[in-house]
Design a protein that fits this description.
The chain is built from 18 helices and two strands. It is an all-alpha fold and 454 residues long. Strands 1-2 form a two-stranded antiparallel ribbon.
Length: 454
């Protein structure tokens, strides 16, 4: 049977498949789309929790799920496995992103990162102070860290919706700020929202870390080989009393930034040899290309450092699996069950909302201005104060991490429900204001670039 060929001699079906996979890959790596999926999951949770089927929503997440190995059995609710196990992958990606930025990114030098660090710290301190000024009771004050965190997926997703009218350095500034924000959030969880340390768990965690270093030392590059050591590290954190998702951050921070394999030839030379071998093959005989293509994929993994290719592999699973599942399991706040008559729940909701919307903006913009005015820093190229104002608004989108910290901060269902509601309201207001201001800023920037009078 004859096959249709393209002018380059490649089967048309193969070209269509390649285009389809390339389009799918681009789709999976667009932050705007992942933000929309996250928003849809949160909306579905809210609708479900306030529908006639609300009981089924809450019953689903309390279903027991157990795993057994021999005589050992671990049983927890589905809600636990999502929040304490699956979210470890989210923190793993966060840890690897931090590792990359420290190695050769926005955090690679103190001078380069000074303004982003200062803006992020301001974006943590000011919201915390605003929250504490609204909530004076000790039980309510436990939620001081809820409005201090920025959701990278949502914030960058909203920024992407504004299109190319926003200068690229604004996105870099926002990413750097959000990454530093995540570092601070991890430290807050470790020091303020974890129980006392159990040393047996600490020993187990260290054993898992040593196993990871051992596999790296002997040049094991397959990510699957690190699954068991990763589970041991996670179990160690669980036994210590610290939140087990911190295992993801630790594993991400120790992921190599260079290939762990010892290669006989340079990566680019190896790629060139494989491509030359493919040219020698009969392009119409697809089966002859299987071996070279397999070698090409293996070479690609070796050329890219583990911290890059593992993060690329995990990104779609985290963005379109873990985070939406987390939103679906935790954003279902029943409006009927929230009682705002007392000062406690109302103060928590108002404190979180106000701190996210106003506190983040004041902290980011105010501290940035002080650093530029008195600290010897300069704004990045093409980033005006209008751009910093936009970053301050988008930094108020807390969502994922804010809800996560709220569940660590509050045991009282009433306070937890109002804290979640405050996160949702604050994030929605911040996103809306960011979109409105961003459209104005993008139009202003385009006019300025065109050299027209404003």
């Amino acid at each position: 049977m004859n096959r249709q060929l393209s002018p380059q001699g490649i089967p048309c079906a193969q070209r269509l498949a390649e285009r389809a996979f390339a389009t799918l890959e681009r789709f999976l790596h667009i932050e705007a789309v992942s933000g929309i999926v996250l928003l849809a999951a949160a909306a579905a949770a809210l609708i479900w929790a306030n529908s006639p089927w609300a009981e089924s929503y809450h019953a689903l997440w309390h279903l027991p799920l157990s795993f057994s190995i021999g005589d050992t059995e671990i049983e927890h609710s589905l809600h636990f496995w999502i929040n304490d196990a699956f979210m470890t992958l989210f923190f793993l990606v966060v840890g690897m992103e931090i590792r990359r930025e420290i190695h050769d990114g926005a955090l690679s030098s103190l001078r380069q990162a000074a303004l982003s660090i200062a803006a992020a710290v301001g974006g943590v301190i000011v919201p915390a102070l605003i929250y504490l000024s609204v909530n004076s009771a000790p039980l309510q004050q436990q939620g001081w860290a809820v409005p201090t965190v920025t959701d990278i997926a949502f914030a960058v997703g909203v920024l992407a919706l504004l299109g190319k009218g926003i200068p690229g350095n604004v996105r870099v500034f926002l990413l750097a700020l959000a990454i530093i924000d995540d570092i601070i959030a991890v430290l807050i969880i470790a020091f303020f929202y974890s129980d006392g340390i159990e040393y047996n768990g600490l020993i187990l965690m260290l054993v898992g870390v040593l196993m990871v270093f051992g596999l790296q030392k002997i040049g094991i590059g397959s990510a699957w080989a690190y699954v068991i050591p990763g589970i041991i590290v996670w179990l160690g954190f669980l036994l210590t009393g610290a939140h087990p998702t911190l295992a993801g951050v630790v594993l991400g921070l120790i992921t190599p930034v260079a290939s762990v394999r010892v290669m006989k030839e340079r990566p680019l030379e190896r790629l060139s040899h494989i491509v030359r071998d493919m040219h020698k093959q009969d392009t119409q005989a697809a089966e002859q290309l299987f071996a070279p293509l397999k070698q090409l994929r293996r070479a690609q993994r070796e050329v890219l450092p583990p911290v890059t290719h593992v993060q690329m592999a995990l990104h779609p699973w985290v963005a379109y699996g873990v985070m939406p599942l987390f939103a679906l399991a935790n954003a279902g706040v029943s409006v009927n069950g929230i009682d705002l008559s007392g000062s406690g729940p109302l103060g928590v909701m108002m404190g979180v909302t106000l701190a996210l919307v106003a506190g983040k903006l004041l902290g980011v913009v105010g501290v940035s201005w002080l650093m530029v005015r008195f600290g010897g820093c300069q704004l990045p190229p093409e980033v005006s104060w209008r751009g910093v104002f936009l970053i301050g608004l988008l930094a108020g989108i807390g969502f994922t991490m804010s809800i996560f910290i709220a569940m660590l901060a509050f045991d009282d269902p009433k306070l937890l429900g109002t804290a979640k509601l405050g996160v949702l309201l604050g994030s929605l207001i911040a996103a809306t204001l960011g979109l409105l201001w961003g459209r104005y800023y993008a139009r202003h920037h385009r006019v300025q670039q065109a050299g027209k009078p404003i």
